[in-house]
């Protein structure tokens, strides 16, 4: 079963040990660039697109994004889709994050950002 990725935001200090953690976290996020990502938000919609950016607040930008949403409230319900292009998903709205074409162990090792 696929598990959600931890893309928590974190404030990094400018001390020597924090710089090491910061560069490690940056390199982990860089490995995700241009991978296809599925992001679920609180209202039940999903966005699927190429990972483009993650800022310090935890907001995600997806390129060539497609929105998927349920047409009816009954389950299982058909999904409607529409192309959006470049979108920003605020961290406050994000419920889940999944990366395509990678093993769960690799996802967790790349995204287990320390809190």
UniProtKB/TrEMBL annotation:
GO terms for cellular component: NatC complex. InterPro entries: LSM_dom_sf (IPR010920), LSMD1_Sm (IPR034110), Sm_dom_euk/arc (IPR001163), snRNP_SmB/NAA38-like (IPR050914). Residues 8-18 have a biased composition (Low complexity). Residues 1-24 are annotated as: Disordered. This is Sm domain-containing protein. Residues 30-90 form the Sm domain. CDD domains: LSMD1. It holds the Pfam family LSM. It comes from Papaver atlanticum.
